[in-house]
Specification:
The protein is α+β, with helices and mostly antiparallel strands. The chain contains 16 helices and 21 strands. It is flat.
Length: 491
């Protein structure tokens, strides 16, 4: 799309929204170049890119105003080339819009390895920005750290944990780990004593008695004694939007899952199975249990979250969160994607980009509880495997949300589970929302779906339940028509 089309589209959307947009900064600039040009360049470069338009007045309904467009275009060029570090290669031009010239710059997203882009006069800590809604905000210290670590290999997982020693490790699991190395890794470990093996592989620090973060999480008896927040929290919410039920119930289940990573992976699956459905399918001479969410996919995602989360001191207060909703399962870990990769590519083919290289290597040779299978393959196949599992079970493709602070994987159910009812009222929050919307006037299922942000088929299920309870009726006999409107009884 050429710049004039980009400007027309951005201004049209801004007029409809009545404000600047996330991907576009629109300024009047009638009195000259805005002082915050370099900040906007930094913000767009550190994000997904964006458009800067100079010569349009927001307070006048985004009308074009008379400006010195060539001068403003030069100011944009200076901001991109001289006022930020690294310099930004933007497409800058003067275009005609509504019959008048405006200056515009298309700011590309900077390569991750070069971020953060910051305003030189303000320095790295105070001059790094990111786009937030319709404005620019400073990147936090942690966000700057996240970008800087992408330039090299982090060492946070190999940091020694104060107060630990080999005594905090699980003896049987350590013995099995060392034995596996000697059996599978060739002669390098054959004539090496156990302590040397643990130091060589990063379980113990190179010097001193301490266990590393990686060693404690892979083989520790109770890592949370030293790293309290490095666990998994499992929460089952009663509603699609995490709102409490009518009786005030906030959670259907809410537990912390502690222990080393192998135990946390299995403990999370155990917590999930208490809250999801399964059905039995006869296969050959036996019976197979089919869960709402594929077990292998869940284990892969939990392992992925624990193995690739950020273990920097600034992130150690954040947990891996596993959140179950009636229609989806969300798994979130601290720290966004690491390295020069994108989320979509991870599901199409095996890709390796490891934030915690020591931990990842350890988990190749540490087994899951009561199993000979290693926790992780460390071949970049995790999300690729998940995609295959979801496709096999006829579920929607995995959704991924990621930013500088976190990575979230979302599995959706084909058929949402019914929201639980409040004992006193027999009414789910969603049913009450439908009734409330019908209190003022009759509405069609499509109107209800658009207002609630859910599918029309889901609305129809709610309407059938309300009709069976004698609370709503259709206004015509044509129940299956898309135009059928519903009203509350007595309205």
């Amino acid at each position: 799309m050429v710049l004039v089309d980009s400007v027309a589209d951005a201004v049209r959307q801004a007029r409809e929204a009545g404000t600047d947009l996330h991907h576009c900064e629109i300024k009047t600039a009638a009195a000259g170049p805005p002082k915050t040009l370099a900040e906007s360049v930094s913000a767009f470069a550190n994000g997904d890119g964006g458009l800067i338009v100079l010569g349009v007045e927001e307070r006048a309904g985004f009308a074009v105003v008379a400006v010195d467009a060539p001068r403003l275009a030069q100011a944009l060029a200076t901001a991109c080339s001289d006022q930020v570090e690294p310099a930004v290669r933007a497409e800058i031009s003067v275009v005609l819009f509504d019959g008048q010239p405006v200056a515009v710059a298309a700011i590309p997203a900077m390569e991750r390895a070069k971020k953060p882009c910051y305003v030189k006069t303000q320095g790295l800590e105070r001059g790094s920005y990111i786009r937030s809604h319709d404005g620019d905000r400073h990147l936090s210290t942690y966000e700057i750290h996240s970008l800087l670590t992408g330039r090299g290999q982090p060492k946070d997982d190999s940091a020694p944990v104060e107060g630990t020693s080999v005594a905090v490790l699980l003896e049987r699991e350590v013995a099995a780990y060392v034995r596996r190395l000697r059996d599978t890794r060739g002669p390098v470990f054959a004539d090496t004593n156990d302590e040397q093996v643990l130091r060589m592989t990063g379980v113990l620090a190179p010097e001193g008695p301490e266990v590393t973060i990686a060693g404690l999480l892979a083989l520790g008896r109770f890592p949370q004694q030293y790293l309290p927040q490095m666990n998994v929290t499992f929460v089952a919410f009663p509603s699609l939007d995490a709102r409490p039920m009518a009786d005030g119930t906030r959670f259907l289940d809410n537990i912390p899952v502690d222990g080393p990573i192998p135990q946390m992976v299995e403990g999370t699956w155990a917590a999930l199975t208490r809250n999801i459905r399964r059905r039995g399918v006869v296969a050959g001479l036996g019976r197979e249990d089919i869960w709402e969410y594929p077990p292998r996919a869940v284990r892969e995602l939990v392992t992925n979250a624990l193995m690739h989360r950020d273990y920097h001191p600034l992130a150690q207060g954040s947990q891996v969160r596993v959140e179950l909703y009636p229609d989806r399962l969300e798994i979130t870990n601290p720290g966004g994607l690491f390295g020069a990769i994108n989320a979509e590519a991870l599901q199409r083919s095996p890709i390796t980009s490891t934030r915690n290289s020591v931990l990842a290597r350890l988990l190749e040779d540490v087994a899951l509880p009561h199993s000979e299978h290693a926790v992780a393959e460390n071949r970049g196949t995790g999300l690729f495997v998940v995609a295959g599992e979801l496709e096999r079970d006829g579920l929607a493709p995995l959704e991924i949300r990621t930013d500088l602070l976190s990575f979230t994987a979302i599995m959706r159910q084909g058929t949402p589970r019914a929201e639980p009812t409040a004992p006193e009222t027999g009414m789910t929050p969603r049913l009450r929302q439908v009734l409330d919307l019908l209190a003022s006037h009759a509405r069609s299922a499509r109107e209800l779906a658009d207002t609630l942000g859910i599918t029309r088929s889901a609305v129809q299920q709610h309407l059938r339940r309300l009709e069976a309870a004698g609370l709503v009726v259709p206004t015509t006999s044509a129940r299956r028509s898309r135009e059928t409107r519903w009203q509350r009884t007595g309205s």
